[in-house]
């Protein structure tokens, strides 16, 4: 069976951060093009600026195109969608960098909608300098939710753990008021579906973290566990979601309990991301729950090391691989779901007709 060649869109992100560097480093190995065609959305001028300062990227060849339709297969292509006079100020937040990041993001989203891309991988943006009358989103997740009409689940993923968030980019003071039984049940259902469809996990087990210290200490430190989280877990169980908890977050991770579950639902951003990034520093941010695939590295713009050549591309590389793996898993799931009378031999990568299967004896 011929291996699919995926068209991977990559947005350049904040030009003054480490996005360009990690993109170039991630694609510096020629084997990255064995089963993928890359379309970078950004500025060739900016890429050239960073490329000349990174020794391992000297031999990268970039094909300049005007649209994804012109992309050279199994090569690195670039669509110029930033201002021609854009100026790099490594390590500095500028309005021009924010505007360029938004332009790249919108161009990639347009091509993803049109079916010109299979997946999109986004380099980090600065959530402050992208704000304008035309762009009021607090992050990539919210932007993709708006563009693709969905209520996504933000997931942090690695080979060690997968963490989903009940609330995303909210001030901590607003988290408790935003939580509800309905919200948590919805997130658990989305989490289960994603683990099955996107990660090929059969009957996934999901741990649910508490909101308050010590799971509220029987109401002494808060009642959200008793009034909201536990009823949500019970309702999810009735909906055939294998959810467990709520667990006090400190004891959960201190005891290494993350290894016992296929997914972990955290109540708020830092509750999930601090342990995740500590345990999986090369992890991936995945916007689950949409009909498109978008991933990103799990780090920020890195102004403090931008332009120094010190940025580690492992997370960007993992984001690229995971995007293609998720797209492949979705295609497999769609195929076997369309015709349940066919058996899919995933190890061999081919279909086997029912007539070819050994006969079953009826009891």
Low-confidence blocks of residues:
352-363
> What's the CATH H-level homologous superfamily of the largest domain?
Isopropylmalate Dehydrogenase
In what order do the strands lie side by side in the largest sheet? 3-4-2-1-5-12-11-6-7-10-8-9
Write down the secondary-structure element order: EHEHEEHEHEEHHEHEHEHEEHEE
Radius of gyration using CA atoms only: 22 Å
User: Counting H and I runs of at least 4 residues, what is the number of helices?
Assistant: 10
Total strands:
14
Q: Give the averaged pLDDT, no decimals.
A: 91
SSE arrangement:
Blueprint: E1 6-11, H1 19-26, E2 36-42, H2 44-51, E3 62-65, E4 76-80, H3 95-113, E5 119-122, H4 140-147, E6 153-157, E7 162-165, H5 172-178, H6 181-197, E8 205-209, H7 224-238, E9 242-247, H8 249-254, E10 263-266, H9 269-279, E11 284-288, E12 294-297, H10 314-338, E13 343-345, E14 350-352
Parallel strand pairs: 1-2, 1-5, 2-4, 3-4, 5-12, 7-10, 8-9, 8-10
Antiparallel strand pairs: 6-7, 6-11, 11-12, 13-14
Question: How would you describe this protein?
Answer:
It is built from 10 helices and 14 strands. By secondary structure, the chain is of the alpha/beta class. The protein folds into 2 domains: 234 residues, Isopropylmalate Dehydrogenase, CATH 3.40.718; 120 residues, Isopropylmalate Dehydrogenase. The strands form 2 sheets. It has a 12-stranded mixed beta sheet with strand order 3-4-2-1-5-12-11-6-7-10-8-9, sandwiched between helices. Strand 1, helix 1 and strand 2 form a beta-alpha-beta unit. The longest helix is centred in the C-terminal third of the chain and has 25 residues. It starts with 5 loop residues before the first strand and ends in an 11-residue tail after the last strand. The C terminus is likely disordered.
């Amino acid at each position: 069976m011929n291996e699919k060649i995926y068209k991977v869109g990559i947005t350049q992100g904040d030009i003054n951060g480490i996005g360009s560097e990690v993109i170039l480093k991630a694609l510096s190995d020629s084997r990255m093009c064995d089963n993928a065609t890359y379309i970078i959305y950004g500025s060739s001028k900016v890429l050239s600026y960073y490329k000349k300062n990174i020794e391992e990227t000297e031999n990268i060849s970039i094909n300049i195109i005007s649209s994804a339709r012109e992309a050279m297969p199994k090569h690195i292509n670039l669509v110029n969608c930033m201002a021609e006079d854009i100026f790099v100020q490594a390590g500095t937040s500028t309005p021009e960098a924010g505007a360029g990041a938004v332009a790249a993001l919108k161009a990639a989203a347009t091509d993803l909608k049109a079916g010109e891309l299979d997946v999109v991988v986004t380099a980090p943006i600065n959530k402050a300098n992208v704000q304008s009358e035309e762009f009021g989103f607090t992050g990539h997740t919210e932007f993709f939710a708006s563009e693709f009409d969905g209520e996504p689940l933000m997931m942090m993923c690695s080979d060690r753990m997968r963490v989903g968030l009940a609330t995303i980019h909210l001030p901590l003071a607003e988290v408790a008021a935003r939580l509800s039984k309905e919200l948590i049940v919805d997130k658990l259902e989305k989490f289960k579906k994603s683990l099955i469809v996107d990660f090929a996990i059969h009957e996934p087990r999901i741990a649910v973290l508490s909101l308050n210290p010590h799971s509220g200490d029987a109401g002494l430190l808060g009642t959200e566990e008793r009034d909201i989280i536990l009823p949500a877990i019970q309702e999810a169980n009735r909906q055939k979601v294998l959810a467990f908890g709520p667990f006090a977050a400190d004891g959960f991770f201190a005891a290494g309990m993350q290894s016992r579950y296929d997914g972990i639902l955290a109540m708020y951003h830092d509750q999930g991301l601090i342990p995740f990034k500590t345990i999986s520093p090369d992890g991936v941010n995945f916007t689950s729950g949409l009909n498109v695939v978008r991933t990103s590295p799990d780090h920020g713009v890195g102004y403090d090391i931008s332009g120094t050549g010190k940025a580690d591309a492992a997370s960007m590389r993992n984001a690229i691989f995971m995007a293609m793996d998720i797209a492949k898993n979705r295609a497999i799931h769609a195929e076997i779901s369309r015709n349940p009378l066919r058996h899919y031999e995933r190890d061999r990568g081919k279909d086997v007709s029912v007539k070819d299967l050994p006969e079953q004896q009826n009891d």
